[in-house]
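Run FtsK/SpoIIIE family protein through structure prediction, thanks.
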Amino acid sequence: MAKANEQKRRVVTALGTMREKLGMVLGAAQAGRQIAETELARLQLEQQIVRVGIDNAAGDEELTAALRSPVMAGVRDKLNAQHAAFYTDAATVPARLRDLVARVAPGPASLPPSAWLGRAGREPLKPPPLWRIGSSTMDDSGPFPVMVPLLDDSHLAITTAVRGRAAVESLIEGLLLRVLSTMELGSVRIHLWDVAQLTAVLPNLYPLSRTSAVTLYDPDQLGVLLDEVTGHIRRIHAHTMQAGHTSLRGLRDQLGQRVEPWRIVVLFGNGETWAPEPLRELKRIAGAALAAGISLITVDIPTILGGAFENIRMLDEHHAATSMTGPNLVVDLDPPVPSAEVSAAASRLADAIVEKQGGPRSFRDLLPAELGQENSARELRAPVGFFEGDPVEVVIGDASPHALIGGPSGSGKTNFLYALLGSLAARYPPDELALYLLDFKEGVSFAGLAPGRRDASWLPHARLIGVNVNTDREFGLALLRFLADELRRRSAAAKEHEVTDLAGLRQQDPDGHWPRIVAVIDEFQYLFAGRDGVTNQATALLEDIARRGRAQGIHLILASQDIAGIDAFWGKPAVFEQCTLRIAMPKARRVLAETNNAAVAAPKWHAVINHDSGVAHGNQLAHVPDASSKDIFSSLQRELWERYAQEHQRPRLFDGAHSPVLEHSAAFAGLTPGGPPRALLGQSIDVEDTACAVELTGAPGRNLAIMGTAIAEALSIMDAAARSLAKQYPPHEVEFLVACLVDRCASAVGELADGLESDGHRVVRLSDVELGEHMAKLAEEPPEHARILLLYGVDAALPILEQKQPGQLKSGLDHFRVVLKQGPGKGTHTIGWWRSTARLKDTLGFAGTDDIGAWAALDVQGAELSQFAAGQVVHWSPRPGRALFFDRSTHVSPEVMIPFDRPEHQA
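Sure, done. The structure for FtsK/SpoIIIE family protein is below.
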């Protein structure tokens, strides 16, 4: 066609030159009184010549008559020579055009269908510039092929005759089959939409709809199609511009490989008038699509769309005219391929595509060929699923620092998280990626990532795994505090090195340990379930981390069934604004933008991935493979564990459904004789595996009170305190005075006493009567060694302690108050359990609470604890298996702790 255009240009140029020479000759022949007549004759001749050049119907006779005019003397020979040269050259055009087509558009692009129909294409990078649609003739030298551009070069706009639908479908089917049979399998995606038909849009190509090659859209899904195409254009343009190119073709040429498929969008408009907004969107698409490797084929869309369009006007079922050949050159369209042959060819192509792609994609297809080869200095990038056979990536970095994931129960949210975590962990080693995983719902979604009884392996990237924390909102708060502290640490280091982001910090401090941190909080709405201090603090911390975390490589992934009811964020949209990465599972609500309904139509096992804050043009639909069934993720975890476990510690596991064991506590293992003794009481709800403890020094008030009627928890705290203290004293250097005044606890207290004795410590067992008698001795005589009073149910002994012995001025209670006040300075410390706060107050008398420096409250309401917490308001609602701990020497406010599990409970 390029040669034909050149020939046409030469004809027009020759006519112009001829007119110029005629004017010169006629002007030289002008004389005297014949000037006017001669000029008129010349002008009339020019009009005749121009008319002959435009309309061949004038014929050679009119041209010959004009040349016989006297005024043409001396010009006729030159004109005849030019005329002869033109037709001599034109006679060679068909042959040259056939040679040109054979060179630039070989194979299916130009050959008859019998030579290629149904065969799989192999061209990976460079599509032919022209594609055959028919033939035409100029003279008796024979027909020449008529070609049209497509793919990277042009769109097509087809206008049909009154009854041209069948012919148009055959024309488009032939073009699409030529493309599919030329290009590499899976490298071309076709999108079909018809304003008037639910089905039968190019029905012969339907076998390809079971693959990624053909996608069909209902008439009411035009908006969905335009949003998808717009999203592809934005994403591809961003990718190519980041690489320094203005088009996908330029990037492809530089890399020498295909990075995105070509797309052909076929739109049957049926001559209907479009609404203004989709029409504007289509015009925007037309102008930008070719640079993104997207071509449009429009049929009967009566508007000027802009962009590079090749026009085809159907004259009847067998003939057309194109803008490349001009209005007077009729194209004889190639005969349509029989429907059965088209359908059979489409089936063969579909089978070849499925075979090449290996059928449905699995979790293993998400993983790289070699583990741990990526660097996280700039961003994290990992595929989480597949769309039309190609991987769909999640990118976590400066542009999309945090993610919001939504999906109702059963929508596949947990499976998606496993796919994401597995894909990230396979690409980035633990030194590049640190994971903090928290699951608020009642379940063990992440428990398998920690070592267990059946599988000793763990995910080396995981630093913290929290499960069953739906009642322990404090643990979520602790994680946010940890992240806030880490953010401050990194910010300080960045300031010291005079850089502004993680990439700069890692470059300036290559020996530092600065992995990207990803904190996943599943069902994070539980963290904000109450209107209390936990919610207030968590909201402030989350907002700060969301704002500033991106620069220092700290990223949040917040997952929830529904975010609509989180009152804590009313009027504080900063968190969600920073979550520019939105992931919506099927039927998810409120995750994407309000007008984006892509999740409603998403099929099961799919997710809508959107890096543009949920706006529709950013949608990418991804099929997420099974990542959470038995032995799927665990096989990858074992590979990673075998590769990295020797260099990294096992993750900290916090399971809110199980009480910790004292002997398994790192704090208990670290206790040794020497230094001030510490009584361990329970596990702290913190990121680090720490214990709540009371340091028993000689300072005033170094006693401990347990308050409440919860027997199991009270026994646990007393037991842990005694055994942890016993571990810090050599035999015979501490004396335990044990008094059990609650009959139900006698057996447990007896077992504890026996255990202390077996460890070589002196144990004195006191009855309620003996306790009263012993108090005077304890108050008056300094002990030879450290002395620990373990008093169970002190409130039960008050009646006896209040009695005065004959001849004595002070009662046992008076002596007990002296022991509480003066005992710590003499090496005597009291650990007592009171079953009510009122009885504790009675015990302390007018001295107030100064003699009880630390306490643990069980089933006691917060309103009863203010007096014991320096007068501050205490927000505490009792719950099983938890206690509220306060030590005035170390705490600003009370903290929740988990009492250790007692030995008989473990059995």
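Confidence is low (pLDDT under 50) at residues 11-59.
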